[in-house]
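Need tokens for this chain, all 245 residues.
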Amino acid sequence: MRNLQVKTEREIGILRAVNTGTVEAIRAMRQCLYYGVTENEVVEVLDNTMRAAGMDPFFDIVEFGKQAALPHGGHDGQAKLEPGDFILIDVGSHLYGYSSDVCRTFYPSSFPNPPPADVKGNLTEKLAIWQLVLDAQAASVEAMKPNATAASVDIAARSIIEAAGYGDAFTHRLGHSLGIKAHESPYLNKGNFDAILRPGMVFTSEPGVYVLNEFGVRHEDILVVREDGDAENISGGFATSPWAP
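Here are the structure tokens for all 245 residues:
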């Protein structure tokens, strides 16, 4: 009997399509953002963008500024985008029965790079944490190899964040498997030493740092454990800056 935790190349192909499509929908929608738009309005546009590409959206988390300090939502969606806000979008769609689950944290396309000196909030800390979370994600990619434990991948990312002094602000596990369901086992958490990674397993890597009442940053991509080398990104490539999610 086939181990359903290990995906076939056909399944990986569908997961690549739906996750890359979801990331590209975020990137396309970013070009339409303007100051004063609400989180709920962004949800509507994003869902319509994914539907236009043949996907079926099933969850959205859209958070502006301090709203993103609560990593998985809980707001009424009425917050309006203001200059200097980070935008955190975590979203999932279905395609041929398979799931996407990706997250990006970024500035709108109208926000200048380099940013103005009078931008609100602690710009230096925000940009440093954006990069810190990306570095933690990169560490998880290097650790995601055959015969590694699920715990070791979480710990690799978590250690980067802890060393920078933000360990208490990374408040959830690193990730989970996905396929037909958006959340499948095994789970990448620091206590899961029983699960052993095998080639063909597919995981999210979604480290985050959440500064209460100020902002939050999370990057989430979909990775395939491969026989040789680092895990493969099948969600359209990693973010490279808050202006290039």
